[in-house]
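Illustration 12: Ribbon-helix-helix domain-containing protein.
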Amino acid sequence: MTGDRILVKRSLVLSGHRTSVALEPEFWSALEEMARARGLGVAALIGGIDATRDPARPLASALRVAALQEARGRGTEGGDLG
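Figure caption equivalent — predicted structure in token form:
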């Protein structure tokens, strides 16, 4: 590849609304691991992050930050991840 980012788009329902999020595969893997560690599905984990994120922060950005915080050991059990 020539440095192009490969994004994987997934569709889900958040607060009753269908939406889609495009992230790099590595972030999807990190979110799947986070969900598994908490006994949640990925959609439930994302719903929790969405519910606590600053409305000014795009959802994809909040998910990347949550994955980074988890990797740095600062993830929380259902707290503010985004």
